[in-house]
C-alpha cells in the first residue's frame, strides 16, 4: 500500500511538472530565451524518464530523475537571482538568456498583465534600425516577478519530487529484496521423494 501511494503521488508530481514546464517552454519560445529553452527541454525528457521509472518499477530511472532535480533547483535559483539582479547579475544581459544571439527579453516584459506598450518615435539614435523602441507602463506585475514566480513553482515541485523519488526508490529496493528472499525458499525448498518404476526384463524361452 505504501509503495502504491508513494508511486501514485510521485506520478502526480511528475504530471504537474510536465504541465507547468510545457507552459513555461511556450513563453520562453515566444521570448526567444534560448538558454531556458534548452534547459527546459532536458527537464522534460528527464521527468518523462522519471515517470516511466515510477510506473515500471525502475529505480535507476527514478534515481537519475532525483539527481537531475538537484541541478534543476540550482538552475531555478540562478534564474531568480538573475531577474532580481542579485550581486553583479543584470536582467538586461543578453548573453545569459539568449546566448547573445538577439536582444529579446522575456515575453512577459511586453505582454504581462495590464502592460501597455507604446512605440517611441522617433527612436533614439543608438537604437538598431531593425528593432523598435518602446515604452511599457501600467503593468500589474513586472515581468521579472512573473519569471521569479515561475521559477519558485518549479523549485517547490522539484523539492516535492525529490523527496518522493527517494521514498519510492527505497520502497522499490525493499520490495526487490523481499522477493529475492522469498525466491530463495523456492529454489532450495523441500522436494518430496519421487516414485520410480523399474521394469525387470525376463528372458523368454521358445
The biggest sheet amounts to: 2 strands, antiparallel
Going across the major beta sheet, what is the strand order? Answer: 1-2
Number of H- or I-type helical stretches: 6
User: If you compute it from the alpha carbons, what radius of gyration comes out, rounded to the nearest whole angstrom?
Assistant: 30 Å
- Strand runs, count: 2
Distance between the termini: 76 Å
As a percent range, the share of helical residues equals: 55-70%
Please indicate the percent range of residues in DSSP E strands (runs of 2 or more). under 5%
Give a verbal description of the structure.
The chain is 63% helix and 4% strand. With 206 residues, the protein is mostly helical. A two-stranded antiparallel ribbon has the order 1-2. The longest helix has 45 residues, at 143-187. It starts with a helix and ends in a 19-residue tail after the last helix.
Task: Give me some keywords for this one.
mainly alpha; 63% helix
Topology:
Layout lengths: L1 H29 L3 H22 L3 H25 L10 H5 L9 H4 L4 E4 L14 E4 L5 H45 L19
Antiparallel strand pairs: 1-2
Amino acid at each position: 500500500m505504501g509503495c502504491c501511494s508513494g508511486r501514485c503521488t510521485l506520478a502526480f508530481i511528475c504530471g504537474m511538472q510536465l504541465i507547468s514546464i510545457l507552459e513555461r517552454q511556450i513563453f520562453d519560445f515566444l521570448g526567444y530565451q534560448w538558454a531556458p529553452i534548452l534547459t527546459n527541454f532536458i527537464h522534460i525528457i528527464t521527468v518523462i524518464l522519471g515517470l516511466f521509472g515510477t510506473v515500471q518499477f525502475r529505480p535507476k530511472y527514478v534515481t537519475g530523475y532525483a539527481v537531475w532535480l538537484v541541478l534543476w533547483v540550482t538552475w531555478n535559483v540562478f534564474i531568480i537571482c538573475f531577474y532580481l539582479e542579485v550581486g553583479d547579475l543584470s536582467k538586461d544581459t543578453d548573453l545569459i538568456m539568449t546566448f547573445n544571439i538577439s536582444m529579446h527579453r522575456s515575453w512577459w516584459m511586453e505582454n504581462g498583465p495590464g502592460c501597455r506598450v507604446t512605440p517611441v518615435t522617433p527612436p533614439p539614435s543608438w537604437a538598431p534600425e531593425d528593432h523598435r523602441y518602446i515604452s511599457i507602463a501600467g503593468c500589474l506585475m513586472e515581468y521579472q516577478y512573473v519569471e521569479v514566480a515561475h521559477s519558485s513553482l518549479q523549485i517547490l515541485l522539484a523539492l516535492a519530487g525529490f523527496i518522493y523519488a527517494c521514498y519510492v526508490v527505497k520502497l522499490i529496493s525493499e520490495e526487490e529484496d523481499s522477493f529475492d528472499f522469498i525466491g530463495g525458499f523456492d529454489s532450495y525448498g523441500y522436494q518430496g521423494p519421487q516414485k520410480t518404476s523399474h521394469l525387470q526384463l525376463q528372458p523368454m524361452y521358445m
